[in-house]
Design a protein that fits this description.
This protein is an alpha+beta fold. Helices cover about 45% and strands about 20% of the residues. It is built from 4 helices and 8 strands.
Length: about 210
């Protein structure tokens, strides 16, 4: 009962969450490797670790369901886009109505593309924007004035929302566990880099016979 378009994103399918979080750690360590010795020597490793993590904006999205808006539009589709087994006349366009559910979101939308560990993504396709998502549902017929179709689409939407929020909660739990582990690793890595920079600086001074 989806109507797919080229702009659609399949939620929680692009990459595993564990891979995304692992890449974050690698990226941050690569960034730290570019710090010069002067920066490292004068660094407060605790504050720097917190700053690096804050800049990541690891805010798992939330659906602002209470601000959902709806609209209906008509579209003509080819019979080949109808559900499997539906009779159609080849070459003839069919006019259908589409229910658009626009749901505002908050947080970092990159998490909508990450599959939490142990989950196999159900194919939920949406138009994903920076601050909202649009879910397009249809009964491949008329919606206006069709109470049975309206109830069916509402129930289908609620089913998808329940699944999306379940995934988001699992992702949030994993991210909440990841952040303190990441901070500890960054503190350790920065401390090691700082100690090496200090040792190098002290050794450099010792090499100078005029000091």
């Amino acid at each position: 009962m989806y109507l797919k378009s080229k702009k659609m994103t399949t939620l929680f399918k692009e990459q595993r969450l564990s891979e995304y979080l692992n890449n974050i750690e690698i990226t941050l360590k690569n960034k730290i490797d570019r710090y010069n010795d002067f920066t490292l020597i004068n660094l407060d490793v605790e504050k720097e670790s917190e700053k690096l993590i804050k800049e990541l904006q690891l805010f798992v999205p939330r659906l602002i369901k209470e601000d959902t808006t709806t609209s209906i539009n008509k579209e003509k589709i080819d019979g080949r886009q109808l559900p499997s087994g539906t009779y159609f006349t080849p070459g003839k366009l069919i006019e259908i109505e589409i229910a658009n559910y626009n749901i505002p979101t908050s947080g970092n939308n990159v998490f909508f593309k990450c599959a939490p560990n142990g989950f196999n993504a159900m194919e939920i396709n949406v138009e994903l924007n920076i601050h909202d998502m649009n879910i397009k549902l249809t009964n491949y017929s008329t919606i206006t004035g069709n109470d049975e179709a309206i109830e069916g689409l509402k129930n289908l939407l609620l089913k998808y929302i329940e699944i999306i929020e379940k995934y988001l909660l699992t992702i949030k739990n994993e991210v909440d566990e990841f952040i303190p582990i990441l901070k500890a690793k960054l503190v350790k890595y920065l401390t090691e880099k700082k100690e090496k920079a200090i040792l190098k600086d002290e050794t450099k001074d010792k090499l100078n016979p005029f000091k």
